[in-house]
Amino acid sequence: MKIPDADFISQKLAGYPESALSSGLVFANDPKPGTLDPFLREIIVFHLPSSTRRAPDWLPEALLKTDVGLDSMGIAECVFLLEELFDVSISNEQLLQLEKYGELLAYLSSLLTEAAAT
Amino acid sequence: MNEVVVTGVGAACSLGHSRESLLSALAGLRSGIVSHDLLPGGKSPVRAVGLVPGFTTEDERWALWRWPGRFPVKRDALRSFAPHVLYGLCAALDALEQAGLPDHDFSASEGAGLFAASAGSTRLLHRGLRVMDETGGARGNPFGVVSAVAGTLNFNLGAYFHLRGANVGFVSACASSAHALGYASDEIRLGRLDQALVVGGEEVTAESVLPFAAMRALSLRPGPDACRPFDQSRDGFVCGGGGAALLLESAQSAKARGAVPLARFDGWAHTADGFHAIAPHPEGEGLERAIRKTLQAAGWAPARVDHINAHATGTPVGDKAEALALGRIFTAAGAHPAIAGTKALTGHGLSLAGALEAVLAILCLTEGLEPGTAFLEKPDEACAGLNLPRVSSPRPLRRVLSNSCGFGGSNVCLAFSRP
């Protein structure tokens, strides 16, 4: 994993709402699970289909599809962005394990911790 | 057989994105062609293109796209769109509003279908393949296929409007959306559908335009007068992007809804040259047969045609072939319909062209405008005897034809009349 800097986040999030960009910049300045959480939420909210968009329940056990409201292509698009942002490859097998918001956050947090340690 | 009518039309192209702006440009012969650097820092001499004003779609990231605020586009649908799908959607929204279907949700009906034509997005395909190359195939945009391949227009708009009767794409190059119109009308005529939304779309990017320069098919003039249909000085076509849409329906369907038909779709025909992958038959033999078969389908003698929107791209070979075909049918019969090459103003919409020019022909029909051909100073000798007005004039029109020709020798002719 490569921790993205502010310029890279600004480039990848061009056209996203200001709140997504600002949470990304907070994360870039202080990359840790606590700043990753709100950044990840902003990314997910942007990819929710308008037909199912509602205030998501961000409990760790919230299922990304049924509770948060992402459709399968929304998940795929989020994953593509996360792969580019963090320079990681998430395999189909790993993706199948990431059904809950808490699982996705924990997975990215563990990569972040590993990257910070090296 | 059911009678087929047109109850709504819309277009977004280099002339603007409202029916009023299109008619105004046709009346004043104002070109939408501009000089534009397709590949900054590049070496191509091609400058003239027809961009789509009011839309910002240069970036491949849909989150950065902008469009005229009057179109109520559902933003999250854009993620699987190409830019030309957005143009086509806006054109369709206008057509449906004019047809009296502002809620544009056909999900309750099994009798409504989509007939669409685009070449796909070579830009998005190019960018997607670049990610594949850069990552060794490890990553890719999950919408890379549905946003880029030639079916992107029908994939996306069929889902957007919840059309359940049919969802079909056409790929016959510059005849594509004319074929879509023809086959859609047949489905209604045969009673298989009540309504058909027909949409064409193309985008203008380095990836979509410059390959034609490699064929030496594009005009190298830089300005708004680069495309010169039928003129002796013509040196090639100019690419023009956009979207165009028409709602066709059975006369019974329109009547039941209380919709007022703009035009009757009296018939169509298509033929093939069987001659060359790119070049048309030099005498326009295949196009001549398409026009004659269309006149037969509509039950019209040549003298009953008031106006013809010619294919007329501004290429030396194509315009000559079309002029010869028109001369053998009309001049030989003592008929002199007003012939116009509107690509002088719009540029050549490629897959979009047939639908866009059907929209323009119907606008002229409904508004009583006989369009001229811009930048026509010295007509090619092959045009001898043809009526090629140099200016547009108010004039009642009853019956119009629209021609389209595509690679592989495809020829399509469409016939519309006032109801």
What does this 3D model show about the protein?
The complex is a heterodimer of chains A (118) and B (419). With 118 residues, chain A is mainly α. In chain A, 64% of the residues lie in helices and 0% in strands. In chain A, helix 2 (18-29) packs antiparallel against helix 3 (33-46) and helix 3 crosses helix 7. Chain B is globular and about 65 Å long. Chain B has a ten-stranded mixed β-sheet, sandwiched between helices. The two termini of chain B are 17 Å apart. Chain B is α/β, with parallel strands linked by helices.
In sequence order, what are the helices and strands of chain B, one letter per element? EHEEHEHHEHEHEHEHEHEHHEEEE
Rg measurement of chain B, Å: 20 Å
Q: Categorize the overall geometry of chain B.
A: globular
- Secondary structural class of chain B: alpha/beta
According to DSSP, the number of beta strands of chain A is: 0
Quaternary structure of the protein: heterodimer
Residue runs with pLDDT of under 50 for 5 or more positions of chain B: none
Biggest β-sheet description of chain B? 10 strands, mixed
Give the number of helices of chain B: 11
Concise overview:
The complex is a heterodimer of chains A (118) and B (419). With 118 residues, chain A is mainly α.
Please outline the helices and strands:
The complex is a heterodimer of chains A (118) and B (419).
Chain A: H1 6-12, H2 18-29, H3 33-46, H4 64-68, H5 72-86, H6 92-97, H7 101-117
Chain B: E1 4-12, H1 19-28, E2 34-35, E3 48-49, H2 83-98, E4 112-117, H3 122-134, H4 152-160, E5 166-170, H5 176-189, E6 195-202, H6 206-214, E7 242-250, H7 251-257, E8 263-272, H8 285-298, E9 307-309, H9 316-329, E10 338-340, H10 343-346, H11 353-367, E11 369-370, E12 393-394, E13 399-406, E14 410-417
Parallel strand pairs in B: 4-5, 4-6, 9-10, 9-13
Antiparallel strand pairs in B: 1-7, 1-8, 2-3, 6-7, 8-14, 11-12, 13-14
Helix pairs in contact in B: 1-11, 2-4, 5-11, 8-9
